[in-house]
Amino acid sequence: MIADEPTTALDVLVQAQILNLLKNLKKDGMSIMLISHDLSTISEICEKVGIMYGGKMVEFGTSHEIFENPKHPYTQALIQSIPRLHGTEKPKYIPGSPPNLLDPKPGCRFIDRCPHVMEKCKKDPPKFKTESGYVLCWLYE
Ligand code: SF4
């Protein structure tokens, strides 16, 4: 089953019902592809997670790998932007805007927002390397 933003714009009670339905379907053996901006839903339902930015998958891994040890600077920033219930850490927003996909720059698509940008990020798009995990970033070359 492909579920595209199944909990978006729903009140919390209906969200909980949808989450329970998805969990039960999964328990019954159904494979589910969940497409969502809601990271808490993803962390609750999904075993494997692919992070998309600027029309490309920039990181792929198990839910544990992605949420406990994110590698790509966008994934790290995305997780830091989630409000926390516990502790004093405040969510950090991601500065800048998404890239213009009608006229993309030659290098990495996260270049204008990345705190680790290097010279080669501007020239060549990074390749999806698997040796250090599935990360689309020159930091892991
Ligand atoms: S390739 Fe460069 S600009 Fe892109 S995410 Fe990695 S470090 Fe940042």
Query: Beta-strand percentage?
Result: 5-15%
CATH fold field value? Rossmann fold
- Largest sheet, order of strands side by side? 3-4-5
**Helix/strand order:** EHEHEEHHHE
Distance between the termini: 35 Å
CATH superfamily membership? P-loop containing nucleotide triphosphate hydrolases
What number of domains?
1
Number of helical stretches of at least 4 residues: 5
CATH class reads Alpha Beta
Integer average pLDDT: 92
Radius of gyration: 17 Å
Helix content: 25-40%
Overall 3D form? globular
Poorly predicted runs are none
Bound molecules: iron/sulfur cluster
Task: List the main descriptive attributes of the protein structure presented here.
two-stranded parallel ribbon; 3-stranded antiparallel β-sheet; Rossmann fold; single chain; 15% strand; alpha+beta; globular; binds iron/sulfur cluster; 141 residues
Topology of helices and strands:
Layout: E1 2-4, H1 12-27, E2 33-35, H2 39-45, E3 48-53, E4 56-62, H3 63-68, H4 73-80, H5 119-123, E5 134-135
Parallel strand pairs: 1-2
Antiparallel strand pairs: 3-4, 4-5
Bound molecules: iron/sulfur cluster.
Structure description:
This protein has helices spanning 12-27, 39-45, 63-68, 73-80, 119-123, and strands at 2-4, 33-35, 48-53, 56-62, 134-135. By secondary structure, the protein is an alpha+beta fold. The chain has one domain (2-140): 3-Layer(aba) Sandwich (Rossmann fold), CATH 3.40.50. The strands form two sheets. It has a three-stranded antiparallel β-sheet with strand order 3-4-5. Strands 1-2 form a two-stranded parallel ribbon. Strand 1 (2-4), helix 1 (12-27) and strand 2 form a beta-alpha-beta unit. The radius of gyration is 17 Å and the shape is globular. The mean pLDDT is 92. The protein binds iron/sulfur cluster. Iron/sulfur cluster (SF4) is lined by residues 73, 108, 110-111, 114, 116-118, 121, 126, 137-139.
